[in-house]
Write a structure and sequence with these properties.
Low-confidence stretches of chain B: none
Structural class of chain B: mainly alpha
Number of helices of chain A: 14
Oligomer: heterodimer
Number of helices of chain B: 12
Shape of chain A: globular
Strand content of chain B: under 5%
Helix content of chain A: over 70%
Number of strands of chain A: 0
Distance between the termini of chain B: 13 Å
Largest interface: A-B, 99 and 104 residues
Helix content of chain B: over 70%
Low-confidence stretches of chain A: 1-9
Shape of chain B: globular
Radius of gyration of chain B: 23 Å
Number of strands of chain B: 2
Structural class of chain A: mainly alpha
Chain lengths: ~280, ~290
């Protein structure tokens, strides 16, 4: 602790930072609260009376979503392609990150920069060509198409984060293992991967998150069979534009998976963001 | 740290290269191809050379969108970076409150972009939204769907709400990596709070702050979903940023040629800026390694 002054001197400072924190948290949470409270209101209450708390508490909006396949299949579809994407991204990024963290090779810096540019590329640029590419190989409206499309930004990100974690592991460990007679594949799966489990967890979290929140590409590449929940929601807005309660409930349900996942990686999340080539 | 040269490392990198090439190089080639051709539907294409580029560079629509985009990104950086640092400095250092704050702060980052749009759409409406209602009751006329200035304020507030936490988390991670000895030394020297920040915390956060500025600049420069859901680019064209304009052109009007030319120029601008940032990052990296 660095502020070991007299208590009287310390109090105002702590109070100021607490005030700032609480103000910021209120700013973050009030809009979310509004969404949650609206999801428990009936549509007539939303439109006709202005209430801070749901007057007649109802689960009807959630019931609508959980019983109507055109709603709940959206969640299933999203889950399928997000998981596929996370698995693919991790499988290809692990060996690549190892190579970047351990060796110099011809064009390594240029390659790394090229990967990074894909993370920085505007998805809008790729919407149209993706649509045509995946249509031409008849993958349009499949989960794998969205999963592959999201690799565009998730694979570079995965390589970036994993490389940071792998650099933290001393190279002597690799050398010792090779001297002990381990082959590369055996060393990699049995020794190296268990050592960077937190890194893999953080990477999986970020891949999951960026694939889960993305709308433009997943909407462009799907129509019915693989339609994600995010696209279902925008369609409902434009079609009826009135059923605010159901829309709010759908929104709340999209927040829950993220909130659960974040609880498990809370102590690594800040570190994960900062890893990269810092 | 000197790494051994080993060309066989390419084998390990190959899957990534193939996968990313499939999802970026092939589509990019299509884009380049379209940008030099015209079509009247079907599969008939005509070579038009640089016509689309010439047309776009003279169109006010593009320059207006670019102007709005740059203004937006600059405002976003000016608000989010200082605010994020401030929040990180106010975060508790350890204990259960630290974990709780981390989880709460990270929450907006995990909300799908279109739900962020929906949240603010609901929150800001003067008939059913808390914000809109309160502001209207204070006697200020506020309607983000009809007034361009209100739309801007709402879009900026939404982005600050959505992404300041990212800056805060990054800065927090940077702060956590400062050894306690630095603070003790500062205390012995009786350094003021400001000089602790200026000479210890800020230089140590430089690395993460570069990343934060890079990510926030890039992501705000290609923002699409949130304003699309909130305002649909309106009122008029007030919040039509580059991506919104591009998608309108490409998937709305199916103007393949101009849209492709637009995409390429957009991409090149981003590429150039990334390159500048990347070079800066590498140099600071080396600079720190030498110290």
């Amino acid at each position: 602790m660095r502020e070991d002054h007299a208590a009287g001197k310390r109090m105002p400072k702590i109070r100021l930072s607490a005030v700032i924190m609480i103000a910021y948290l209120l700013f973050l949470l009030v809009p979310i609260y509004w969404l949650v409270s609206m999801s428990f209101k009936s549509n007539s209450e939303i439109l006709n009376s202005f209430t801070l708390f749901p007057d007649s508490f109802t689960f009807k909006n959630y019931q609508t979503i959980l019983t109507d396949p055109s709603w709940y299949m959206g969640y299933v579809n999203s889950f399928i392609y997000v998981s596929l994407n996370t698995v693919i991204a991790l499988l290809v990024a692990l060996p690549a990150a190892y190579a970047f963290s351990r060796y110099r090779f011809y064009g390594d810096n240029h390659l790394f920069f090229w990967l990074l540019t894909n993370r920085m590329a505007p998805p809008a640029v790729f919407a149209l060509p993706f649509f045509q590419l995946y249509s031409s190989v008849s993958l349009f409206d499949t989960h794998i198409a969205v999963a592959l499309a999201h690799c565009l930004f998730n694979v570079p990100l995965a390589v970036w984060i994993l490389e940071g974690f792998m650099r933290g592991i001393p190279r002597e460990i690799d050398e010792t293992a090779f001297i002990d007679g381990y082959g590369f594949a055996q060393f990699f799966t049995r020794i190296f991967i268990p050592m960077i489990t937190p890194g893999i967890g953080v990477t999986a979290f970020f891949c999951f998150m960026f694939s889960w929140v993305e709308l433009l590409l997943s909407r462009t590449l799907t129509s019915v069979d693989a339609k994600p929940i995010t696209a279902t929601m925008t369609r409902t807005v434009s079609a009826s534009g009135l059923d605010w309660g159901v829309l709010a409930a759908a929104g709340v349900l999209t927040i829950i998976p993220g909130a659960i996942v974040i609880y498990f990686v809370r102590s690594y999340i800040a570190k994960g963001f900062a890893m990269g080539r810092v | 740290m000197d790494k051994p040269v080993n060309q066989r490392a390419w084998i390990l990198v190959l899957p990534v290269v193939v996968l990313v090439a499939f999802s970026s190089v092939i589509p990019m080639m299509t884009v380049v191809n379209y940008s030099f051709q015209d079509t009247f539907g079907g599969n008939e294409f005509f070579w038009v050379g640089l016509d689309w580029y010439r047309e776009l560079l003279q169109s006010e629509r593009l320059w207006d969108a670019l102007g709005r985009q740059i203004l937006f990104s600059v405002i976003i950086l000016l608000i989010e970076i200082p605010l994020g640092i401030l929040v990180a400095l106010c975060m508790p250092k350890k204990g259960w409150t630290a974990s709780l704050y981390l989880v709460l702060i990270a929450l907006p980052l995990l909300i799908p972009y279109n739900v962020v749009g929906t949240i603010w759409q609901i929150f800001g409406r003067s008939d059913i939204g808390l914000l809109g209602r309160v502001v209207s009751d204070m006697g200020i006329s506020y309607n983000y769907a009809q007034n361009a200035f209100d739309a801007w304020v709402t879009v900026i507030a939404m982005d600050v709400w959505h992404w300041t936490s990212l800056v805060a988390l990054l800065s927090y991670a940077g702060l956590r990596s400062i050894p306690n000895a630095y603070y003790q030394a500062a205390k012995i020297d009786q350094a003021s709070r400001w000089s602790v920040f200026r000479y210890i915390e800020l230089p140590k956060m430089r690395g993460v702050l570069i990343i934060a500025v890079l990510l926030r600049f890039m992501d705000s420069f290609m923002i699409y979903t949130e304003p699309f859901v909130l305002t649909g680019g309106g009122p008029g064209n007030a919040t039509t940023f580059l991506s919104i304009d591009l998608v309108k052109m490409a998937l709305g009007q199916f103007d393949l040629g101009p849209a492709a030319a637009f995409s390429l120029m957009y991409f090149l601008v981003i590429l150039f800026i990334s390159y500048v940032f990347y070079t800066v990052m590498i140099t600071t990296d080396k600079g720190e390694a030498k110290q």
